[in-house]
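Annex B. Sample input.
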Amino acid sequence: MSIRAKLAWTFILLLIFGITAISSYSILFIRNYLLSEGEKQIINDTRWLAITIQNLRSDDDFETNLNEIATASGYRLAIYDENGLLYAEVPFHEFPEASRQLESDLRENFVRNGAMIVEDNTNNDLLVAYTLLMPIHNAAAYLKVTIHKELIYEPIKTIRWIIYTGMFISIGLVLLVSITFSRSITLPILQLEKAAREISDGNTNQSLNLDRSDEIGTLAKSLNRMADRLRTDNLELKRLYQKQNQFFADITHEIRNPLHTIAGSLEMLKMSGLDKEQKEKYILTAERQTQRINRLFKDLVTLQRYDSDDQFIQKQTFDIQKIVSFIREILEPEALEKGLQFNTNVGHFNVYGDPDKIEQVLENLVTNAIKFTSEGSIEITAREENEKVVLEVKDTGIGISEEHLDRLFDRFYRTDKARSRDKGGTGLGLSVVKSILDAHGSEIHVESTPGEGSRFWFNLPMS
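Annex B, continued. Sample output.
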């Protein structure tokens, strides 16, 4: 059963039960009220009937006059003499005949409790009143006044008809209102259900336009926000999926090329007739490609630790000049071999960070500078600025075009893929630099002009 039907039937049944209970209670209350008023009325009527009957003369017209009084009052009248014997009874139909003699107990009761007695027997359909008479012109001593309770309850028929008519009209109205009301409630719920189903099927462009300020409107807004979030997440997942696919493709390509070179060198070494110089050449080529693969996996391990290891860096206080001096010691020969000047201008600055990771950052930046600089110089400088030490690596190399700067630190991104691979690069050096500095809460900056050189800088907090 649908929610609409459940709501409609709930309203209808509640109304029927409510009206039935109210009408039953009302009718019972009215019956009791009418009976109570009937008792009061019969007492008052019995008093004036007693006065009237006491003044009737005992002649040939006595019974006729008594019958007219009974007809006018609507009561059944029975008169008893002082011995309790039935003296007269009118009218002669519609009521059961009175007993021929008034019970002695009842007469004694008059003496004890007064001149008026009302009998309301639940097993009897009659309401009866007794009173004493003071006979003046006739022998009447007791008066019995009787009326059917149905005459007292007569207004209930009209009231019951009004109540039931109102009930059926109300049921009709409730049917109409409940169907309309349940439709107004269930229609947006059905729209919400349809939208949720479409969103679950992947249609995140679904949007609900429900101009409501109630809970359903709030739910619709939440559903729209969820769809927007899912749409954004889906786009991000697609982007990450494409990036992951590109990442694995780049790894495969980066490993395949040096492996082919190593395999080729080994094949050449198997050939007979090679002189010593040629053998050393192929061995050196294989060794360089092995080092290249080793650097690739080293960079991958660094990036993987950055992505998953909360203890990626271990900060401590260290002298930045010692790190720069070590970098110069291991990389200056390579720069001099290309005819480049290697300059440093770094004082004794105590900084707070991971010395091994900062060493890796400087090594990658200087190595890149040497690779892409054919003439001129490489320079490392350090200066204090706002309680921080700014480290800068500057070269006079080929520079970087502006369109490449936004993606320069993406993994496996190269401005010139062919030239980069020829120089033994892995495409991960600058990504490693950015990851390490991000872990330090720092940021890598770059300025470059094609043909004039590049400048990379970052800062570390002073100890």
